[in-house]
Design goal:
Number of helices: 2
Shape: rod-shaped
Distance between the termini: 101 Å
Protein name: 9598_t:CDS:1
Organism: Racocetra persica
Helix content: over 70%
Structural class: mainly alpha
Largest sheet: none
Radius of gyration: 39 Å
Length: 105
């Protein structure tokens, strides 16, 4: 990050010669900082640093999607099971009524 150093100066003393050393010093210090941070970050580049975040996002979103669809499937399967059970109960009740009527005659 470029740091700007301000020094209180009188306006009459500002000249190109007085400003030039301050600007050059700031540029040298900022270029050293950028170079050193680039060198340290280049040394730390690994496969996990490059591809870790995208793979983690894909894994998490894939897992969330899979679990959500699995819950939806279970709910639909349970609703189908309830419907089949209700139909079976209704058919058995009808059969019981038929047997009761045939036995009473």
């Amino acid at each position: 990050m470029l740091k700007i150093i301000t020094r209180p100066m009188k306006f009459s003393m500002i000249s190109r010669k007085s400003i030039l050393p301050m600007v050059q010093h700031n540029l040298k210090s900022s270029s050293n900082t950028v170079a050193s941070s680039t060198e340290t970050s280049a040394n730390k580049l690994t496969v996990w640093n490059v591809y870790g975040t995208p793979l983690t996002n894909i894994f998490l979103w894939g897992s969330i999607t899979y679990m959500g669809l699995q819950v939806l499937w279970w709910k639909l399967e349970f609703a189908e099971l309830i419907e089949e059970t209700d139909n079976k109960i209704a058919s058995l009740e009808k059969e019981i009524e038929i047997l009761k009527k045939s036995k009473s005659y």
